[in-house]
Design goal:
Elements: E1 6-12, H1 16-24, H2 29-32, E2 36-42, E3 50-57, E4 60-72, E5 76-81, E6 86-94, E7 99-106, H3 113-122, H4 126-149
Antiparallel strand pairs: 1-7, 2-3, 3-4, 4-5, 5-6, 6-7
Length: 150
């Protein structure tokens, strides 16, 4: 069963190269994301590169790994979380005043059964956790906007 598409969008009053520099520096992901505590890229930013990550929600920590799936400079960055097969992406579009950023979580084949079981057991169930993820996306984009507009 496919999981719903989760998405958030924001307009930033900054040039696309400024916004891209913030988003493509994955070591800064903990500055943006309420859940991410570490995102360490292994090697150069390119498709196939791997990251090692640590996430936190309330008192629960969990490690993950990701694989970079798409890098189109100043347009799109995407990575697949290996544990649950979800794909997270940031897409940038120029606007009259700056840059529009859309953050998306795709799970077209649904998250893995083990991931859903863990979320149901430890994180209050999939629907409430997905609501929390969208809230986190909006918080992340607001933090990126604040940094880009400084």
């Amino acid at each position: 069963m496919a999981a719903p598409l989760l998405q958030a969008q924001i307009d930033i009053d900054a040039p696309i190269d400024t916004v891209w520099a913030l988003i493509s520096d994955l070591s800064r992901m903990p500055e943006w994301s309420p859940q991410c505590r570490v995102m360490k890229l292994r090697g150069p930013l390119r498709p196939g590169a791997r990251t090692v990550n640590l996430n936190k929600r309330k008192f629960t920590y969990w490690p993950t790994t990701s694989t970079i799936t798409e890098v189109i400079p100043q347009q799109k960055l995407a990575f697949k979380v290996d544990l649950n097969n979800t794909i997270w992406s940031y897409e940038l579009q120029p606007t009259e005043w700056g840059t529009r950023v859309t953050e998306t979580r795709h799970a077209e084949n649904g998250a893995t059964a083990i991931s859903n079981a863990l979320v149901n057991a430890f994180m209050g169930g999939v629907p409430s956790f997905e609501d929390e993820l969208v809230d986190g996306m909006n918080a992340s984009l607001a933090r990126i906007k604040a940094a880009a507009e400084r």
